[in-house]
Design a protein that fits this description.
38% of the residues lie in helices and 14% in strands. By secondary structure, the chain is of the alpha/beta class. Strand 12, helix 7 (289-299) and strand 13 (309-313) form a beta-alpha-beta unit. The longest helix is centred in the N-terminal third of the chain and has 47 residues, at 26-72. Residues 1-35, 59-91 and 516-525 have low confidence and may be disordered.
């Protein structure tokens, strides 16, 4: 029976110096040396030939990639600008398959999430130069951009409208910004699919139709078998600035962003059938400013019959600022800061200066915090929409009572703590119960001596699951700013109109903490 050597012997062998081939005779040693020389020659030859082979293969690979990209029409990288191709007769079968004809030329899209996607399609004349602060003009007025014999690659989002981001405090976008985007599961003119048009929120101050995490997607279009559309519109002082100086040759008294939205819907109504949609089955939906914009368009005679259903998520409800009031305010502050007395002076201002002059010393987040705080009697939140022109002749509540609003099915929702993403008081998280009571009393007692007492009785420590002051306060402000006004709106609409109204409140809370920015994005819808 053969026994294995002791482990100590094995370890000793491992520690002994070892010289290979010492047991070979001279002949074996010669053969070994000869073979080694042959192996060295092979390695040397390979080291010289291999780079040549790799270089040749790389040239072939690059050539194949260029040919494929040229054939498939994938030459425009994400983030670049679309290119015009006037040689429509030489388009490949792939380009023809993803190309749609419109009144202002052909647009070549792409595939995304099993859907066809068209990004950055212009729908109006750019609001630049002397077109700034004027009602929106259809793209057909711009002969340079509206050419039926052109092919435009529509694979990249257009620029957002110029804005000062209230989070980053950085400027974003440009004035040439009136673009829309389409996600469709079918490019069949006879598909007659439902169309959902998303109107972005952002307090009429910021945002875009392609905001990450919020805008539609190809996967969503494919899953629901619905055509989705989104678009940009002018915001803040470039989109809503009521001044007499602008009204000489226009019926629009400051609601230029609303004019953009109506023009986008007119474009959709004329062209969506070519993207597989049915212009008679259009639903508009949006959160906060998007929802408020939908209410305004339901009231506007200029958007009559452009959509058949609406879904409003947490719409802003205040529409009580007349043009004359807004004009007096803007003359006293904006014009004085700009030192302009003529419209030509205002046209020469850069967009950034316009925004700065409008803000004055206010932080860009001021309007957001103001609207997410308790009101004080006599101090009205700064409203951008002006009531009383042809675009918006009366506020939505008044239009409901007089039955001059669109009679269409409505889905209206709010969140139980909608203002929690950015509440008015900066130090709310550190409040004591004494501070909470004092703040509520100071704000609400301006409406009457018992209002604050009743509010504190309704929103007390026993009326919350977590028992936190922050939850109580945000619930109180949300009820006052959104939940109750939206419920009143739904009731008034139900009592005066024939169409159905569906009202809901979201009470779900995240299971774990999320960053404020992410929570804000989801609250925006």
């Amino acid at each position: 029976m053969i026994k294995d050597p002791p482990i100590s012997d094995i370890m000793s062998l491992l520690g002994t110096p070892y010289s290979p081939y010492t047991h070979l005779d001279e002949e074996d040693d010669f053969l070994r040396h000869h073979h080694q020389e042959q192996e060295d020659r092979k390695k040397n030859l390979c080291s010289k030939i291999l780079p040549v082979i790799i270089f040749g293969f790389s040239v072939v690979l690059v050539t194949v990639i260029v040919v494929c990209f040229t054939t498939l029409g994938l030459t425009t990288p994400e983030g670049g600008e679309g290119k015009e191709d006037r040689t429509l007769g030489h388009s490949s079968a792939w380009k023809q398959f993803v190309t749609v004809h419109t009144e202002c030329g052909d647009y070549q899209g792409n595939l995304e999430g099993e859907s066809f996607v068209f990004k950055g399609i212009p729908y109006a004349v750019p609001p630049t130069g002397e077109q700034r602060w004027k009602s929106t003009l259809p793209l057909t007025y711009d002969k340079d951009r509206c050419q039926p014999d052109t092919l435009t690659v529509a694979k990249n989002f257009g620029s957002p409208c110029i804005q000062l981001n209230p989070y980053t405090k950085h400027y974003e976008g440009q004035e040439d910004c009136l673009y829309l985007n389409i996600w469709t599961p079918k490019l069949d003119t006879e598909a007659n699919l439902d169309v959902m048009v998303w109107i972005h929120g952002g307090f009429l101050q910021f945002g875009s139709g392609h905001q990450a995490g919020l805008c539609p997607s190809g996967k969503l279009a494919k899953t629901l078998n619905v055509v989705f559309v989104s678009f940009n519109y002018r915001v803040f002082a470039l989109g809503y600035l009521a001044l007499n100086i602008f009204t000489d040759n226009s019926d629009n008294k400051g609601n230029f962003g609303l004019s953009d939205q109506i023009m986008a819907l007119k474009w959709i109504h004329r062209n969506i059938k070519k993207f597989g949609g049915d212009p008679k089955k259009i639903t508009v939906f949006g959160g906060d400013a998007g929802g408020a914009s939908i209410l305004a368009m339901m009231t506007s005679p200029l958007s009559k019959n452009l959509f058949q259903r609406a879904w409003l998520s947490g719409p802003a409800m205040i529409f009580n600022r007349s043009f004359n009031e807004a004009n007096r305010h803007n003359e006293a502050f904006f014009l004085r800061r700009s030192n302009c007395t003529e419209i030509s002076c205002l046209y020469n201002l850069s967009a950034k200066k316009v925004i700065n002059y409008y803000l004055g010393k206010d932080d860009p987040s001021f309007r957001i915090r103001d609207q997410n705080d308790l009101p004080i009697q006599g101090i009205f939140p700064e409203q951008l929409v002006a009531v009383g022109d042809k675009t918006l002749p009366k506020p939505p509540f008044g239009a409901i009572e007089s039955k001059e609003i669109a009679d269409i099915p409505l889905l209206i929702g709010t969140s139980a703590q909608a203002v929690e993403f950015w509440p008015g008081p900066d130090d709310l998280r550190h409040w004591s119960w004494r501070r909470y009571k004092k703040y509520v009393t100071t704000s609400l007692d301006s409406f009457g001596p018992r209002i604050a007492h009743l509010a504190l009785h309704l929103y007390n420590a026993s009326d919350t699951n977590s028992g936190t002051i922050e939850e109580l306060y945000t619930t109180m402000v949300t009820d006052l700013r959104q939940t109750c006004p939206v419920t009143q709106l739904a009731s008034a609409y139900t009592n005066n109109m024939k169409s159905s109204v569906y009202r809901y409140i979201v009470t779900a809370q995240p299971s774990t903490m999320v960053s404020q920015r992410i929570f804000f994005m989801f609250c925006m819808f």
